[in-house]
Hints:
- Helices cover 16% and strands 31% of the residues.
- The protein is of the alpha+beta class.
- It has a single domain (8-92, 103-110), classed as Sandwich (Jelly Rolls), CATH 2.60.120.1140.
- The strands form two sheets. Strands 1-2-7-4-5 form a five-stranded mixed sheet. A two-stranded antiparallel sheet has the order 3-6.
- β4 and β5 form a beta hairpin.
Amino acid sequence: MNLKPLRVKLAQGYRDRLLGVGLRVTWREFDALCLPRCRAVHTLGLTQPIDIVFVSLEAMVVEIRQRVPPWRIVMARAPNAIDVWEFPAGSCHAHGVINGLSVEAMLRQMIPSTK
């Protein structure tokens, strides 16, 4: 199996955070979006669902919301969630992402294959 690099976008500025995945829901520009210091996200304006992963200060997956439909606001239930990762819908299930997994392991599992 051939692997290609995982393209991660880091949402640092206000505009990146507000737009999130935005109109790029086809995931052409990146494979994952990281929103540091964030405990809530929205899917307003999206046309397709996304997977949302909340991560702790210790860089561990603490909550997963799969296939969140458009036009939703999602807040972390896990009290220790500090960051959010967004992926194309179905990614978490397809790549075996579970609570307790480290961010490093999650990203390693998410590396897309060229098939």
